[in-house]
Amino acid sequence: MWRAESQWVLVADAVRGGVRMSKAMSRVAAGLLVIFGLAAACDAVSRDEGKAPKARGATLAQSEVAADHPGPPPADAQKTASGLVTKVLRQGRGDQRPDAHDKVRVHLSGWNSKGKRSEDTRVRGEPATFDVTGVVPGLTEALQLMKVGELRRAWIPDALAYRRGRGKAPMPLIFDIELLEILDGAPPLPAPADVAAPPADVHRTKSGLTYRWTKRGGSKRKPNPWDRVRLDYTGWTAAGEMFESSSRLGGPATFDVDEVIPGWAEVLPKMAVGDRMRLWVPEALAYQGRLGRPRGKLVFDLELRSVESRPAPPVTPKHLTAPPKQAKHTASGLAYLVLAKGTGERRPEATSRVQLHYSGWTTEGELFDSSVVRGHPTTFPLSRVIPGWTEGLQMMVEGDKYRFWVPERLAYGKQTGGPQGMLVYEIELLKILP
After folding, report:
1. 248 or 432: which carries more pLDDT confidence?
2. Which CATH class is domain 203-308?
3. Is the C-alpha dihedral spanning 336, 341, 345, 350 positive or negative?
4. 105 forms bridges with which residues in the sheet?
5. Which of the listed ranges 8-22, 29-43, 204-218, 243-257 does the model predict with the highest average pLDDT?
6. In terms of CATH architecture, what is 10-183?
7. In this model, does residue 44 exceed pLDDT 60?
8. Among 203, 278, 305, 369, whose Cα sits 20 to 30 Å from the Cα of 328?
9. Distances from the Cα of 234 to the Cα of 144, 227, 251, 277, angstroms
């Protein structure tokens, strides 16, 4: 578990707030922003050469963008009802603003909550082009406030950045955005005739979900709840307004089944490859009133293209809020249980590099990170992990598997961007590296 150079990755997903940040940097994620680290959606988003621009903007002056982390919002910044905070750094021109169906061409400079610059299109020498709704909700909202030529700074709270999921922690963002161009987006797909109410020949579940097959693919391959799927999808409100579609992102999207909205998670294991299905999803099984997402009952068309098998997630430990009586304690407050004894004889030192498998849970039972789920072990230097790991791993030999209860002061403390409070880890030490 990296302390200063964590592997947290943030993406805006196509069904924002419904998909909890898939670990696969899939095609849908390639069309969106990847913050923190080296990748960015702008690298993979295609530019619509054939589209006539609505307006053009001037090139961003280097001196107008902060070279260092901008810091907290100033007193004269404006806050919206959603919690987004913005400040105009340079006025735009005209009255035209992007709408939800447009594409935009922008220059972006971004910082994560640790102060690290995570994105700068000027460094790459090329602006980014993407759908207004193809990014995190906070950026979508900020873009629709802007005029062409405008430079605006946006402080995006984690609630408008991405849904917290396995291996991800809340991380507010800061962007300097220059709106260069508004491009006419593809027209929305027409709503199905039964968008307002399902027909009689549907299936209804106890949860309140309604669905019916519109095509049977003939395959027997169905996903498990922990598998990854590739699918085409389009979503409409009950009023018939299209709010999202993989067709606007250039093709099928990839999601983890256990990281989508509850309505999707319920039906995807019923679908076989090639199946098409229409869902009528009540709000309780959709976005549940989340900011920046459509409210009320929603209708989705899904077509399952393929299934990728994934490792089953680890079983959540029983004792999360406090270690059991048989757990041992160190002087620092670290608690641990030996789950399996290894055959090794050496123990790592504080400067060693180790290869291991691990899974981590909050006291609420959320699996926030797991090399087991990713399907491959991880290598860490003990000098660069949280203190609880540095201490605990030095007690282990190769092959040992321990469960640790790590108090907050030995974990991330109050550090922004990491899970908070006491954390529970299961760690299997595979190898001490030279």
Report:
1. 432
2. alpha beta
3. negative
4. 129, 181
5. 204-218
6. Roll (3.10)
7. no
8. 369
9. 22, 21, 11, 11
Joined together, the tokens standing for residue 111 give: 């910082």
Judge if pTM exceeds 0.85: no
Q: How far apart are the C-alpha atoms of 340 and 399, rounded to whole Å? A: 8
Domain ranges of the chain: 10-183, 203-308, 328-433
> Is there a common fold for 10-183 and 203-308?
yes
Taking residues 397-409, what's their average pLDDT? Answer: 97
Q: In this structure, are residues 175 and 112 in contact, taking their beta carbons and an 8 Å threshold?
A: no
The amino acid sitting at 250 is G
Nearest 5°: the CA angle 34, 306, 32 is 15
Contact 168, 20 (CB under 8 A): yes
Residue 162 is predicted with a pLDDT of 60
The three state secondary structure string of the chain is: CECCCCCCCEECCCCECCECCCCCCCHHHHCCCEECCCCCHHHCCCCCCCCCEEEECCCCCHHHCCCCCCCCCCCCCEECCCCCEEEEEECCCCCCCCCCCCEEEEEEEEECCCCCEEEEHHHHCCCEEEECCCCCHHHHHHHCCCCCCCEEEEEECHHHCCCCCCCCCCCCEEEEEEEEEEECCCCCCCCCCCCCCCCCCCEECCCCCEEEEEECCCCCCCCCCCCEEEEEEEEEECCCCEEEEHHHHCCCEEEEHHHCCHHHHHHHHHCCCCCEEEEEECHHHCCCCCCCCCCCCEEEEEEEEEEECCCCCCCCCCCCCCCCCCCEECCCCCEEEEEECCCCCCCCCCCCEEEEEEEEEECCCCEEEEHHHHCCCEEEEHHHECHHHHHHHCCCCCCCEEEEEECHHHCCCCCCCCCCCCEEEEEEEEEEEC
328-433: CATH architecture = Roll (3.10)
Question: Cβ(172)–Cβ(113) under 8 Å?
Answer: yes
Characterize 47-82 residue by residue with b for buried, 16 or more Cβ atoms within 10 angstroms of its Cβ, and e for exposed: eeeebeebbebeebeeeebeeeebeebeeeeeeeeb
